[in-house]
Design a protein that fits this description.
The chain has 151 residues and is mostly helical. Helices cover 66% and strands 0% of the residues. The chain has 5 helices and no strands. The N and C termini lie far apart (54 Å).
């Protein structure tokens, strides 16, 4: 098997695994609300909340026990008459901004928003600096070779 075929097989495997994981939903049948409108609202909310155990997975997709408890809490709040914003605010008040998969832009989340672009700029600066040093070294090496040839 050549390298190109191996790369194709690996790429296909990764793509298939991503597509099947996005279809996996951890909501258990007994959690589903009988009112389809409330259930749709609950699913919409739980897709935007992070499982505090799984870290980068929504509570809608997580099979962790705490995610199940959070899903049930969302449904309880909806049944109690809260609107979507009130439910999310309640969860954030209880668990903090960390549970939001899309955290708000505010003072305590500034590092989440500014950190990655800042690190990208630092890496870009290091790469450019590396190539400038390499170019200068190759020029000085070619100057030495030219000087040696002239002797």
């Amino acid at each position: 098997m050549n390298v190109l075929t191996l790369i194709k097989v690996i790429t296909l495997s990764v793509l298939l695994s991503w597509s099947t994981t996005s279809l996996a939903v951890a909501v258990e049948p007994e959690e589903i609300l009988s009112n389809p409108n409330l259930e749709a609202r609950a699913r919409s909310i739980t897709r935007g909340l992070r499982c505090i155990v799984c870290q980068n997975q929504s509570i809608d997709d997580s099979t962790a026990r705490v995610a199940r408890d959070m899903r049930l809490l969302v449904r309880e709040r909806l049944i109690a008459g809260d609107n979507n914003k009130q439910v999310v605010d309640y969860i954030v008040e209880r668990y903090g901004d960390y549970v939001l998969l899309r955290p708000p832009f505010q003072k305590n989340t500034l590092a989440l928003w500014i950190g990655p672009p800042f690190l990208a700029l630092i890496i870009l600066f290091i790469i450019i600096r590396f190539f400038i040093i390499q170019r200068n070294q190759s020029k000085s090496n070619s100057d030495l070779l030219t000087f040696s040839d002239g002797e």
